[in-house]
Amino acid sequence: MEEGTYVNIENLRKMQAGLSKDQLYDLLGRPHFSEGLVGVRKWNYIFQLPTGNGHYMTCQYQVQFDADMLAERMHWRESSCAALLEPQESEPTRMTLSADTLFDFDSAQLSHEGQQRVADLAGRIRDDFVEPSVMVVGHTDRLGSDAYNQALSERRAATVRSALVSNGIAPMTMQSRGVGERQPVTHCEGDRSTPGLKACLRPNRRVDVEVSGEAR
């Protein structure tokens, strides 16, 4: 796992002493270094943490366990990584929409329900922010080729951006981009496209709408 994974920042903020290994697994996923099977007292991870403006920092994180195999201490290799977990006043508000709700299978055209979801989101943005700046980011799961997933994520992000414009969000305040399968929020075993694997990967098929600006 030299490249690391894109972890849910809110899950990292929930880390505390006393958590079991099962609880850590649910929050952070499996450790990224093979350190044996029995009596392991340290788990090491590599995470890609957002620094703002679409950029990321590679950070190494270690969890140490006590004799009862409960989390005892957590450490970042670099202190600058720990600082990225502190909420910033300028940190954008992220609103996540499920792609399975917005679009039909393998489509970048909004479904009827998807149109309503985007209209509701546009109303929330207008009501909650003064002169907002909006970034729409499309994501896919890992099923299919890299090139196909990248193109689909870009088309879906562009579709949501256009729908927000149609619902009163100024086009000059918005950007869109796709990142394909590169930023999963959940990890699932298996390579065959089975119904179970598709269901497990559902959280990765999404559109994130990041809104910056003064709150009303």
Describe the structure.
- The protein has 216 residues and is an alpha+beta fold.
- The chain has two domains: 9-83, Beta-lactamase Inhibitory Protein, Chain:B, domain 1 (2-Layer Sandwich); 93-215, 2-Layer Sandwich (60s Ribosomal Protein L30, Chain: A).
- It has seven helices and seven strands, in the order H-H-E-E-E-H-E-H-H-E-H-E-H-E.
- The protein has helices spanning 9-13, 21-28, 79-83, 99-102, 112-128, 146-166, 195-200, and strands at residues 42-52, 55-65, 71-76, 93-98, 129-139, 174-178, 206-215.
- The chain has a four-stranded mixed beta sheet with strand order 4-7-5-6. A three-stranded antiparallel beta sheet has the order 1-2-3.
- Helix 6 (146-166) links the parallel strand 5 and strand 6 (174-178).
- Helix 5 packs across helix 6 (146-166).
- The mean pLDDT is 88.
- Keywords: Cell outer membrane, Membrane, Signal.
- This is OmpA-like domain-containing protein.
Largest sheet, spatial ordering of strands? 4-7-5-6
Q: From the helix content, strand content and strand pairing, which structural class follows?
A: alpha+beta
The secondary-structure element order is HHEEEHEHHEHEHE
Number of domains: 2
Give the total of beta strands.
7
Radius of gyration: 19 Å
Question: Main beta sheet, described?
Answer: 4 strands, mixed
Level-1 CATH class name of the largest domain: Alpha Beta
- Please state the average pLDDT score: 88
| Helix share bin | 25-40%
How would the global form be characterised?
globular
CATH topology of the largest domain: the name is 60s Ribosomal Protein L30, Chain: A
The assigned CATH architecture of the largest domain is 2-Layer Sandwich
Give me the CATH superfamily of the largest domain: OmpA-like domain
Instruction: State the end-to-end distance.
Output: 42 Å
